[in-house]
Amino acid sequence: MSLVRFIDFLRDRLGLVIKVSIGLLALLVVADIARVVLSHGHEAAAAVGPDLASAPSEVEAAHGFWAHLYHIAETIPVFWSVFGFIACAIIVYVSKWYGHLKVGRTEIMAKEDFYNE
Amino acid sequence: MSDLWIHPSLIFLIGAVLLPLVPQAARKGWLLLVPILAFARIVTMSSGTFGEIHFTKDIALTFGRVDRLSQVFGYIMGLMAIIGTLYGLHVKRAAEHIAAWAYVAGSIGALYAGDFITLFLFWELMAIASTFLIWFRKSERSGAAGYRYLLVHMAGGVALLAGIMLTYRATGSLAFNALDVLNPTAGTWLITIGFMLNAAVPPLHAWLPDAYGEATFNGSVFMCAFTTKTAVYALLRGVPGFQILIPLGVIMALYGVVYAVLENDSRRLLAYHVISQVGYMVAGVGLAKLDTDFGRLAFNGVCAHAFAHILYKGLLFMGCGTVLHQTGESKFTELGGLYKKMPVTFILTLIGGLSISAFPLFSGFVSKSMIVQAGFDSHMLWVGFLLMLASAGTFLHTGLKVPYFIFFGKNNCKPATWEKAKDPVWNMTVAMSIAAFLCIFIGSYTPYLYSKLPLQDVVYNPYNTNHVMETLQILLFTALGFFLMLKKLTPEAKISLDLDIIWRKGGPAFLWLAKKPIQAVDTFVGEIYNAGGLIPLMRTSRLVGIFDSAVIDGIVDGFATGFRNFGARLRGAQRGALQQNLTAAFGLSALLLLAYLFIF
Question: What ipTM is given for this predicted complex?
Answer without folding.
Answer: 0.83
